[in-house]
Automatic annotation (TrEMBL):
It comes from Oceanospirillum multiglobuliferum. GTP binds at residues 205-212, 230-234, 252-255, 318-321. This is GTPase HflX. GO terms for molecular function: GTP binding; GTPase activity; metal ion binding; ribosome binding. Residues 199-366 form the Hflx-type G domain. It comes from the Bacteria.
């Protein structure tokens, strides 16, 4: 749109350079999957190492010649770098190779542009692309460099460039306004769920860990799921009914990746806020991935970046069908709380364990016991039935109702407030203030 650059095609030469002092190196295997996910056809993968970056070409003269030979040999349309290049480095390399050059951030942005399906998702991707492009805009007008200062020769190049910069700023500003409306609408929906006391569960995890597949089988939906990076960009929410809990909102979110471009994190903040304000995060991990521990740390890093690192979390290790000797199971911590669940979403193994673990984590404060209700407590009995909390019912010698119940303590306390009963008679070791929830004062 703003560039006069070599046309881009699908035949690609991949370049991976790591530096000796680099602590967190990029994964060449993941880079190959990124290129394929973007629709590229890799024909050569050139790797190398350096002690420091070449300020002009990023790589040294020898490595640049090696890349040039591969481009000429395979008639490549594009060269993809598994690194972050400066605008000037991209342009200098393009001049030398006479073909399109794209760095890791640009590649991820291209994949996001292909995957976005909803209006919101497209706006988010466009915002990230425009902000990325704004730093590279000047390179698109090198054909005007021949115009020098002087009478009759001043103005056109700079005028055109400034015009494009202004249009770019205006478009970015317009997208920010529209996304702000989306954020407001999402916040209204979240407030409505909080008022209705509907817990929310967000599926998070590294890209291609199987979040959408798990989401589909748990909610009986048909969200797009594929064995590729960033198959899901747009958040999908479904309401499901769980034992002991009742209604729960389950959210499928965008996958994370190491060194996720900061502009993408900013652009997708409205989407990621579903994870930020969830009652429980279900962190889906590809159990068959050799880098699963490192991927888990990368997800933790992104969650910390969006302010969701202190939320309750349940680890779900998916794809055990690709491992030998693994059976579906729940692993618990020293307090008996579910901590990890091993499953295979695609084969339907362990799905009941996931639901059980989510239920236990959301209902860590569960009330179970037998209640003796008088005839005058018919309203409370009716509310317990409406909640589905009564497991069985009998009568004692005085004709009173004896019911075995199971429900969250918070729900039981709300019921007691509504019928005007004192919770102390059921919870003698606690003060009423221990159970006060937002809005209880108005209910009572």
């Amino acid at each position: 749109m703003f560039f006069e650059r070599p046309d881009s095609g699908e035949v690609a030469v991949l370049v991976h350079i790591h530096f000796q002092d680099e602590k967190d190196r990029e994964d060449p295997g993941e880079f190959l999957e990124l290129a394929r996910s973007a629709g590229a056809g890799p024909v050569a993968f050139i790797k190398g190492s350096r002690s420091r970056v070449n300020s002009k070409f990023f790589v040294g003269d020898g490595k640049l010649d090696e890349i040039r030979q591969a481009v000429q040999l395979y008639e490549a349309d594009i060269v993809l770098f598994n690194n972050t290049l400066s605008p000037s480095q991209e342009r200098n390399i393009e001049r030398e190779l006479q073909c399109r050059v794209l760095d890791r951030t640009g590649l991820i942005l291209d994949i996001f542009a292909q995957r976005a399906r909803t209006h919101e998702g497209k706006l988010q991707v466009e915002l990230a692309q425009l902000e990325y492009m704004s730093t590279r805009l000047v390179r698109g007008w090198t054909h005007l460099e021949r115009q020098k200062g002087g009478i009759g020769l001043r103005g056109p190049g700079e005028t055109q460039l400034e015009t494009d910069r202004r249009l770019l700023r205006e478009r970015i500003k317009a997208i920010h306004k529209r996304l702000e409306k989306v954020r407001t609408q999402r916040e209204q929906n979240r407030r409505s769920r909080r008022r209705a006391e509907i817990p929310s569960v967000s599926l998070v995890g590294y890209t291609n860990a199987g979040k959408s597949t798990l989401f589909n089988v748990l909610t009986q939906s048909d969200v797009y799921a594929a064995d590729q990076l960033f198959a899901t960009l747009d958040p999908t929410l479904r309401r499901v009914t769980m034992p002991d809990i009742g209604a729960v909102v389950l959210a499928d979110t965008v996958g994370f990746i190491r060194h996720l471009p900061h502009k993408l994190v900013e652009a997708f903040r409205a989407t990621l806020q579903e994870a930020q304000e969830a009652s429980l995060l279900v962190h889906v991990v590809d159990a068959a991935d050799e880098a699963r521990d490192d991927n888990t740390r990368q997800v933790d890093h992104v969650l910390a970046e969006i302010g969701a690192d202190d939320l309750p979390r349940l680890l779900v290790y998916n794809k055990i069908d690709l491992l030998s000797g693994y059976e579906p199971r729940i692993e618990r911590n020293s307090e008996g709380e579910p901590e990890r669940v091993w499953i295979s979403a695609v084969n339907g193994l362990g799905l009941d364990l996931v639901m059980q673990a989510i239920g236990e984590r959301l209902c860590d404060d569960l009330f179970k016991g037998s209640l003796t209700l008088k005839a005058s407590q018919g309203q409370l009995r009716a509310m317990l039935y409406q909640q589905g909390a009564i497991l069985d019912e009998d009568f004692d010698e005085q004709g009173q109702f004896v019911v075995n119940v199971r429900l969250p303590k918070s729900d039981f306390i709300q019921m007691l407030f509504k019928v005007g009963e004192d919770p102390k008679q059921y919870f003698p070791n606690y003060g009423v203030e221990d159970f006060m929830l937002e809005g209880d004062a108005e209910v009572s």
